[in-house]
Write a structure and sequence with these properties.
The structure is a homodimer of 546-residue chains.
Chain A: E1 31-44, H1 50-59, E2 76-84, H2 93-97, E3 108-112, E4 119-123, H3 126-137, E5 141-143, E6 146-152, E7 154-159, E8 167-171, H4 179-191, E9 196-202, H5 215-221, H6 231-237, E10 241-247, E11 262-263, H7 270-273, E12 281-282, H8 287-303, E13 308-312, H9 318-322, H10 325-334, H11 338-355, E14 359-363, H12 365-368, E15 379-382, H13 386-389, H14 391-398, E16 402-405, H15 408-411, E17 445-447, H16 462-474, H17 476-494, H18 506-522, H19 533-537
Parallel strand pairs in A: 1-2, 2-4, 8-9, 9-10, 10-13, 13-14, 14-15, 15-16
Antiparallel strand pairs in A: 1-6, 3-4, 3-7, 5-6, 11-12, 16-17
Helix pairs in contact in A: 1-3, 8-11, 16-17
Chain lengths: 546, 546
């Protein structure tokens, strides 16, 4: 369908290499190579898991160009052989995907000769094979039924991610997204090797999560009876999901079913008591509320099997507690300050998660503003604005916590286009701003603290984010969240370096990203065009000096 | 489905009045009023045309809320009666819609009593009745199967548009859009009373229009054999369309089938010879090319029945002609300067259109830079940057041409988010910019020149565009083109004034626009959420001071 004019330009077919993220080691040639009409993929794996076989069969349908053309004399690639280099037992891709993030094996080695010999893909895990299959599929175009590449031979030796945690966060509380949207998003994530879905499932605005132990929360807190995630829906989604139940702030909606646990519920003006409407947060100083919250976390953690479980901790509003008579009475009764009460609250609620073997995740305020007693297992989500205070991430790291770094000025998809609050005389004009408040995204990395590095040469800082800045911050408003995910996917797989070690460059990346967009569309993801289609056919020719 | 929580807030249901554009005269009450389960619409029109009957039956399915609630005691509206106040013959809505833009009758008067008496809609044309039905449909919500409004009684006396030409332009050459997308867009336009579709059908990048007399143009110039508009497709689309075949610039693609007519085809660097790649424009000084172009316009005008036919004239590159040996030879042979040759070219090509009774439309350069001999019928598209040189529109008007004013800084949907040219070191960062170059939109007005007014109090200038600026220029990147169309729809219907004569205000407009978004989604248009759904339920409560 697309690109039928490709034939006209066959002599000058650009070597776009629609690889995204680009492998960290890569050598290619200039040979044409055809995929055999009887091309086979051999799985040299003992008792291969079903999801690996599914991934293999998908690979065979992933070529996408279709047009008339030459290529009749190019060598033919007969087969691809998959080999596992580790020992038994062989686990499924799914099982490998939910191993501790620091213990996952995602690397692979791929060789595609252009002399008619078979291609070989090897890895230490089925997950690595899956990453390699994804890369393999990105080499191929169809031209009048001939599936070909023009960059043979290909050698990728040990392509491994720069960062083990490469995440995407979706908020389903500000606005609801149906399960089908989420599953499509999970699929698209896998196409670009993003490996963690951070599901910000509830917030002050709605509570769509149906918990069998607390059915009233969704009954009264969801936007409607149909805008909920049932336990069956959750099972459908959670294999990749790190869940979040924010607390003690961002919980106003709980007042719809449990008003006794919420301070300053819908207090006015909301801006005095919360960062966004509606106001309302858990009465953290109340023993009953502590118990309630611990039980809620336990119930949620039981339906959300991910190892990581975020308990929130962001944007706690103290003015709310100052004017809440119940909280003041609770503090008086316990003799605690609010900070001490918060520590009790956190120890109790994290303790409930620890009993279930979960690793708690908190936002950076819990470490930087509140100095709580936290297990060193705890992962801290840093949302530092890189330019203003990149030291925040360093401060968290200095406290020896693992860190997920999600600088809001680069990776929040809802920033940069205005805000959704009405009648705000300051800052970006709010009215009809057209932000999509639900699509807050973190596309982040996680490393043990000692490896974390905030210097300008580190991937989280200036050089690495140049590409992201252009792709996500300024341009993302038109890309939809998929495209931004694509871009960060490359940054966090590669560490923002190309296979030759040079910094990734937007001019080089644009045609690759545009090419990926067509593959996304072909697979049912409605990513928008980045350029006229004319440029996709002639990627070099839409640069200014061409 | 949506808004089931509405019941909770029934006592305080906001009077959002999801009217867009808001009528120019409007008085409402605070009464609840139910639509009768046996509600009927009576068409008091002699021999009513089929499209009016279709519009009536659609109106009855347009209510959209659905939830449990009270409202049991509200009066019931039994019926709506449609009356035509003009004389016979009664024309169809379609026939009224393609009358000369200055002679269309779109006004209507609507009364919805809240005492159980019938509602009455009257107009001077079926098109006016259609506009009124659209407004009528926007009053109704469903609550547990009860269709109601809470602003009865309603009186709208002579709601007429401020500007007769309220347009939306779609470029189908930079990127192709299938017929189904275009038809959905036409539907959405009608929901907000936009009345002109400017179809920028071909450009330098591709030629998707299949012309029976020039089949080679699409055969060789379309992106693919399937990315074309056949004569049948065109018939499906054109009833609302004003077509454009740009010339003599923006024609590089014609070289694929008629290289003899194109100067500097794909010359390098393109930026010397064109505003965007690829370079190439008609050899306007060549008699053969003049004949070819006149024949092409004739062929296109025969399949595109709109009264207005744009012949382009923008961004003509003179450097191209200086280095083109053929053009220099043609000029020498005729003894003409390039400007004189352009005049000959324009007279001949416009003459071909005049023979078919078409009104030519040109971009402002043809009047302001080239000073051609143009019929005073000619409509000039002004794309002035309002802040920098609003006088351009005034200059065109001063030359006594009709003007369609489409300031690019407010109404071009592809501006403001970056550009799609790669490797541009200046201006907005181009790489991975994420603009959608196909969606250039004009949302414009057309008035006889003497009525045109560029002073700050005029709708095209500062006060009126405040709302547009916020809605379109800054926010549009996330709204998709539908939302921007919605916003301009209100500006150009109302003249940016509310029913009480005050300037429209973004804070007031936001909840109405957000409400409209849900109606759009309900009808299958994927407009994005402007705020959390929580705000749609409680529109006043997401303002900063609430």
């Amino acid at each position: 369908m697309l690109y039928t004019k490709y034939a006209v330009f066959l002599a000058a077919i650009p070597r776009v290499l629609a690889l995204w993220p680009i492998p960290r080691t890569l050598t290619t040639g200039t040979d044409f190579l055809r995929l055999s009409p009887t091309f086979t993929i051999t799985v040299n794996v003992h008792d291969p898991p079903q999801d690996l076989l599914s991934a293999v069969s998908q690979t065979k349908t992933w070529a996408w160009f279709s047009d008339a053309g030459a290529l009749k004399t190019a060598p033919v690639l007969p087969s691809l052989t998959l080999t596992l280099q580790n020992t038994l037992p062989v686990l499924s891709i799914s099982a490998e995907s939910v191993k501790d993030v620091l213990n996952r094996s995602e690397g692979y080695t791929l060789s595609i000769p252009s002399d008619g010999k078979p291609a070989v893909l090897s890895a230490n895990s089925t997950l690595g094979l899956f990453r390699g299959l994804t890369t393999f599929s990105q080499f191929w175009y169809d031209l009048n039924g001939v599936t070909y590449t023009n960059v043979g031979p290909v050698s990728i030796v040990k392509d491994v991610p720069a960062y083990p945690y490469r995440g995407f966060m979706l908020d389903t509380a500000r606005n609801f997204f149906p399960v089908s949207d989420i599953k499509r998003t999970l699929d698209a994530m896998s196409w670009v090797k993003i490996n963690t879905f951070h599901w910000h499932i509830v917030d002050s605005q709605s509570f769509p999560l149906v918990l069998p132990d607390f059915p009233e929360l969704a009954q009264k807190g969801a936007y409607s009876a149909s805008e909920v995630y049932t336990p069956a829906d959750v099972q459908d989604i959670v294999s990749y999901a790190a869940a979040e139940i924010d607390s003690p702030g961002h919980t106003a909606v709980i007042a719809t079913s449990h008003p006794e646990h919420i301070a300053c519920s819908q207090a006015s003006p909301w801006s005095t008591f919360a960062n966004e409407p509606p106001a309302g947060q858990l009465r953290l100083a109340s023993p009953a509320t502590v118990n309630f919250t611990a039980s809620l976390f336990t119930a949620a953690a039981q339906v959300l099997p991910s190892k990581h479980f975020s308990t929130g901790g962001d944007e706690l509003n103290t003015a709310c507690y100052v004017q809440d008579a119940q909280t003041q009475a609770d503090l008086k009764a316990s003799g605690h300050t609010l900070e001490q009460a918060l520590n009790v609250f956190t120890e109790a609620t994290h303790g409930a998660l620890a009993k279930l073997g979960k690793t708690p995740v908190v936002w950076e305020e819990m470490v930087l503003e509140h100095n709580l007693t936290l297990s060193k297992d705890t992962v801290v989500m840093s949302v530092t604005w890189v330019w203003i205070s990149s030291q925040n991430a360093a401060l968290v790291a200095a406290k020896n916590f693992q860190i997920v770094h999600s600088p809001s000025d680069y990776f929040y998809l809802d920033c940069g286009a205005g805000e959704w609050i009405g009648k705000d005389p300051t800052g970006t004009p709010p009215e009809i701003a057209g932000v999509t408040p639900s699509n807050v995204a973190e596309v982040v990395h996680l490393r043990p603290p000692r490896q974390y590095n905030c210097r300008p040469s580190a991937p989280s800082s200036r050089r690495a984010t140049t590409l992201v800045d252009r792709a996500v911050r300024r341009a993302e408003p038109r890309l939809d969240r998929v495209a931004a995910r694509r871009t960060s996917a490359e940054i966090f797989w590669t560490g923002a370096k190309g296979p030759d070690g040079s910094a990734l460059d937007g001019t080089e990346a644009l045609p690759r990203l545009h090419d990926l967009r067509y593959r996304m569309v072909q697979r049912g993801v409605g990513a928008i065009a980045l350029q006229p289609q004319w440029c996709a056919l002639r990627p070099q020719l839409c640069n200014l000096d061409s």
